[in-house]
Amino acid sequence: MEKPVVRSLLEANDAGAAELRALFAERGIAVLNFIGSPGAGKTALLEKTFRDLGGEFSMAVIEGDPQTDNDARRIAAAGGRAVQVNTGGGCHLDAALVRRALGGLDLKGLDLLFIENVGNLVCPVEFDCGEDCKVALLSVTEGDDKPEKYPLLFNLASVMVLNKIDLLPHVDFSLERAERFARRLNGELAVLPLSCRNGEGLDGWYDFLRRVRAKKAERAAVGR
Amino acid sequence: MEKPVVRSLLEANDAGAAELRALFAERGIAVLNFIGSPGAGKTALLEKTFRDLGGEFSMAVIEGDPQTDNDARRIAAAGGRAVQVNTGGGCHLDAALVRRALGGLDLKGLDLLFIENVGNLVCPVEFDCGEDCKVALLSVTEGDDKPEKYPLLFNLASVMVLNKIDLLPHVDFSLERAERFARRLNGELAVLPLSCRNGEGLDGWYDFLRRVRAKKAERAAVGR
User: Fold this and answer.
1) Residue A121: closest CA among B192, B119, B152
2) What is the pLDDT of residue B107?
3) Shortest distance, CA B53 to any CA of chain A (angstroms)
4) I need a surface site. Which of A147, B33, B155, B181 has the fewest CB within 10 A?
5) Interchain CB distance below 8 Å, A120 and B118
6) From the centroid of its chain, how far is CA A136?
7) pLDDT tens-place string over residues A181-212
8) Segments making up each domain of chain A, as ranges
9) Chain centroid to CA A120
10) Which residues contact A72 (CB under 8 A, 6 or more apart)?
């Protein structure tokens, strides 16, 4: 009984995502959809990115949370532009919510748009929001078995960020094991271990963003 | 469009949960539904509980995961009985899945049944599985703002377990702040800071389980 309903919701969402993708392509905006558990460090990574790349790119964030505008306020404090979407208990963002949030953003000249999804490794994965790539964000405190247990995300993501590596001495987590599980699901997956706390590995993340942005700008130029 | 469908699914689930609750009441089995993020330490707390209380109570677990039977194997290695339910990508357990899992368990003489839900702070909260209480399991690496951001869970839970307190010196987490946010949502909430890694605070958890179990056994005796 549940299946057909879910399928028709996903089909409607895919149509909305295709419209968003066309809009972003026309404007050359690179869009990244951040998916990770609550507390994995999605907002922390965005705060760092705004502080360190704020002079290089024009960036904005759509913040998805069941409640509060805490995250949008954190981004604003880091000098970034953010629109908060409260899902009112809903477990993921979708194309319609992203479309509505765009009403609160000036897209002119924007290089990078981040979508920070609701903290959840399952539901957000199936709802395309017109992004160029999904960023799977896993912290080392969550256990190295997560790619195996939540395979769809790691299968569809372009990059796996392994955050909080400053805590590796205090937890049982093998970077090698997490990477091996994830690569078995997705041979193309980029893997970026880093720490938002001490800054280790952030350069790799910034280079990844530069590549995503350059590729999108190049395609937009060809399209003109 | 989505709302009425969701409502009818929840109503069907509530009916299934009521049947489960009657079955558990008749047999005097105390049932706890564990809800927390991926990697918060739900399985680790169950492993400890089986090792430490295995001689005191007859216990079993229903393990919910999108994929793998890793957690059921971990429980078995700790000397416990576990039935694994794979949701095949689904984001929560529900009464029908729990009912099906019971087919794999001998309920005779069982004192405590744990339901380890899919790692997710949102979706599992709305699906009653016939439990006596929901256990909200939050680890200190996830941030002290989580009760505020995911209020429904903390509103409906009977206890908030704050796990991984051995990592407190390495993260920005205020136990007082987490407790204050959670208590604002739910004045009755028990709060149990503990560490599955070094064993600190586990006694408080075991006392909580003894109280839940004693209350259920007492009610079942009155009912006979």
Assistant:
1) B119
2) 96
3) 24
4) B155
5) no
6) 7
7) 999 999 999 999 999 999 999 999 999 999 99
8) 9-214
9) 12
10) A61, A63, A82, A83, A84
For residue A133, what is the enclosing H or E element?
Answer: strand A133-139
Neighbours of A214 (CB within 10 A): 11
Using the Cβ of B163 and the Cβ atoms of chain A, whether some distance falls under 8 Å is answered with: no
Residue A89's identity, in one-letter code, is G
pLDDT digits (tens, 9 = 90+) for A97-114: 999 999 999 999 999 999
Query: Tokens 């407790």 correspond to what residue?
Result: B179
CB-based contacts of B100: which residues, under 8 Å, 6+ apart? B85
Put simply, whether B9 touches A (Cβ < 8 Å) is yes
B121 close contact with A: CB closer than 8 A: yes
Residue A47: what pLDDT? Answer: 98
Angle between helices B2-27 and A2-27 (to 10 degrees): 130
Hey, how many other C-beta atoms are within 10 angstroms of the C-beta on A135? 28
Q: With an 8 Å Cβ cutoff, are B146 and A39 in contact?
A: yes
* Residue A164 buriedness (CB in 10 A; 0-12 / 13-18 / 19+): buried
The residue of A11, A67, A68, A91 whose CB has the most chain B CBs within 10 angstroms, and thus the best one to mutate to test that interface, is A91
Give the number of other CB atoms < 10 A from CB of residue B193.
19
- What digits encode the pLDDT tens for the residues A31-46? 999 999 999 999 999 9
- CA–CA–CA angle B87, A35, A178 (5° rounding): 75
Q: Residue B193 and residue B164: Cα distance in Å, rounded? A: 8
DSSP label at B171? S
β-pairing, A159-163 with A190-193?
parallel
CA distance B87 to B94: 10
Class of domain A9-214: alpha beta
Per residue in A99-152, pLDDT (tens digit) is 999 999 999 999 999 999 999 999 999 999 999 999 999 999 999 999 999 999
